[in-house]
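Sat 14:20. Reprocessing the chain from the morning session after the first attempt stalled halfway. Input below, unchanged.
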Amino acid sequence: MSKKRILSGMRPTGKLHLGNLVGALNTWVKLQDEYECFYMVADWHALTSDYADTSELETNIIEMVIDWLSCGIDPQKSVIFRQSHVIEHAELFLLLSMIIPLSWLERCPTYKEQITEVKDKDLSTYGFLGYPVLQAADIIIYKADTVPVGEDQLPHLELTREIVRRFNNFYSYEGRKIFIEPQAYLSIAPRLPGIDGRKMSKSYNNYILISDNSELISQKVYQMYTDPQKIRVTDKGHPEGCVVFAFNSVYCDNYSEIKSDCYNGKIGCVECKKNLSKKINEILNPIRLKREEIIKNKDIITDILDKGQKKASEIAKKTMEEVRSAIKIK
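Finished this time. Tokens:
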């Protein structure tokens, strides 16, 4: 019995942080043994918001793929490819855009949120508004059964399903539906905050990179926001509002004990940060070592992406033959 297919991707914005590792990469690694995985470097998606300066795009692509491989994404198990090198994505995006009502895109929660919150970039572009359509094309061109998502991404996936239903309502190939409605693989991973308590983001400069060395990680952990009411070790703490404890709940098996000790004034913030820093570094050490090996032979990145592109293109071309035939474009 053939494995079900998964499609997921990330925008290449440079080296990845712990939020990316906990929120996505750890899940991706686990899925490799259960599914036929396609992992996409979404460089066209990066242009929807970062179109004004593309000088770092190529470097960011390489850095991101290095992080993927370092964390356990295996090119022997997964298809790793670059979105812009499979041009069929653009063709399907164009054809889908012909049938999608504008109102579907305008009601997208992410679109509304980004337009309101992002002040340093002009997002009033067709590309940014049409982001969910390109995302749908990315998924359905491979007829992916499943897409790993967090709860905040469910509206995007539901829009993809609506697009599939609309397309299948208009067109068919040899009497059958071309596209399937992808299902969500809901990630239950906790969301790590930034060291200042806000969302971990490069925009806020409050992140810990997967590739940070041990000294830098310790420095960033010591900068973490903690309970302002816990001044002395013996003061009772409030771990539920503490950034350090949010990390403890992910990285420390004894987080329940840590929580109790904090509540009861048995552990101070400095000691807590020291223990957390040590634990994070223990977990990241194997990743750092693998990263160093990959950096010594960066040429393998191009080779991996080229091989992935060939596999992805083979499927995408076949899908587009069906689409063109269904629409009567030859």
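The first strand starts at residue 5 and ends at 10.
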